[in-house]
Amino acid sequence: MRELLNTHKPGIIILMETKVQFSSMGPFFTNMGFSASTIVDPIGRAGGIWLNWDTDQVNVRASAVSNQFIQATVHKEDFEEWVLNAVYASPNPLSKDTLW
Predict the structure, then answer these.
(1) Cβ atoms within 10 Å of 69's Cβ, excluding its own
(2) Residue 80, CB-side half-sphere exposure with 13 Å CA sphere
(3) pTM score
(4) If you average pLDDT over residues 17-28, what whole number do you get?
(5) How many domains does the chain divide into?
(6) 37 falls within a domain
(7) What is the DSSP letter of 5?
(8) Which domain CATH number covers 75?
(9) How is residue 79 annotated by DSSP?
(10) Residue span of the structural domain in which 62 resides
(11) How do residues 47-96 score in pLDDT, each as one tens digit?
């Protein structure tokens, strides 16, 4: 992960199905330059969505968050604003139905 981040220097990174609490990895992302985040921690060892961004590169504003998705608006200087949807659709059919 460190090599990918150093090589490509993304402004936003999304991890899904993390299976661990963000608090165990938060310092890693901070050290890699991701100064802000919107987090959905997993329930037990299932799920988890981490949306991390570098505030020097982009401005991200989360507008809706649930245990299966994060919806956010992304703004980068000199680019048109756009909507990002990070969706972790549960394999459980009953849980997946709540996405609609």
Answers:
(1) 16
(2) 2
(3) 0.87
(4) 90
(5) 1
(6) yes
(7) H
(8) 3.60.10.10
(9) S
(10) 2-90
(11) 899 999 999 999 999 999 998 999 999 999 999 999 999 998 777 777 66
